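hey so i finally got around to running the thing on that chain from the lab meeting. sorry it took forever, my laptop kept dying and i had to restart like 3 times. anyway pasting the input first so we r on the same page abt which one it is
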Amino acid sequence: MESLFYFRTMPQNNTALLEFLFRFVNDNRKELFMQNIKNRTNYITVVLEDIFQPQNASAVIRTCDCFGVQDLHIIENKNKYRINPDVALGANQWVNIFKYYKERNNSIKCIHTLKEKGYRIVATSPHKNANTLSRFNLEAGKCALFFGTEKKGLSDNVLSNADEFVTIPMFGFTESFNISVSAAIIMHQLSKMLRESTVSWQLTEEEQTEQLIVWAKKTLKKPHLLIKQFSETQL
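ok and heres what got predicted. didnt touch it at all, straight out
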């Protein structure tokens, strides 16, 4: 697994580091960060398996950002994940993207990683035992929503290791939605349900601080030099 953000150079005192970095962030951007961080969640996370169309992949990133879903997991077994900047509109800066591509079976690696973090593996599929969105039990615990390609859907590895299945009710002749549409419908419904529930869905204070540091680093020029400067003042 590879994350596109990391904290290798980050000192222990994250609160002090955030205060230091925020000195170099303009007030409007800081205000926007503080507004958005309160609405971010990792209670729901999204997983894309072998999505090969850049416009669909990029649309899902944008949807995650719009609904406050902070983490997106990308499985690359056969297809490399590419971002279309005209579709993503910069959303990839604000969503944490984790890639799985180094293993022989990256789907299994992703599943194991998420289960170790306490996530239920939820396959989006017209499975005979699938719950509809309105009946999905969010209060049962954190969930990782897996989406596959339009043509093949999710792999047997995901389907056989899924804890639950969820489906979108459809009433037409076509058997499935476009992947980006499916993700948008499901995230909209579950995000609404989550915010109306009694679940503690927001990031913890520590997670919020870490995420604000990530956002600040992406805003600033040469943030590694600023972090080095801060670290030297802590000696």
